[in-house]
Design brief:
The chain is α+β, with helices and mostly antiparallel strands. Helix content is 23%, strand content 34%. The chain is built from 1 helix and 4 strands; from the N terminus they run ββαββ. The protein has one helix at residues 34-48, and strands at 8-15, 27-31, 51-54, 60-64. Strands 2-1-4-3 form a 4-stranded mixed beta sheet, covered by helices on one side. The two termini are 19 Å apart.
């Protein structure tokens, strides 16, 4: 029997100083600017086989569906 994660936030990617982020259930990565944030989100989604979603407050999250 195989066990897998379903609909789980794997990572939060924030631009340092722009978004109030606190520690929680997901790993938080801080980028120096929007360009680095986009690159980190893309790389993390490929590695984790997740999907990047952008929130209204500028945060990006990687979700495993």
């Amino acid at each position: 029997m195989r066990t897998s994660l379903v609909k789980t936030i794997l990572a939060v990617i924030a631009v340092k100083g722009e978004s109030p982020v606190e520690a929680g259930g997901a790993v938080v990565f801080f980028a120096k600017d929007k360009e680095e944030q986009e690159k980190m989100a893309t790389t993390l989604s490929r590695v984790t086989e997740g999907v990047v979603h952008e929130l209204e407050n500028g945060l990006k999250i990687v979700v495993k569906h």
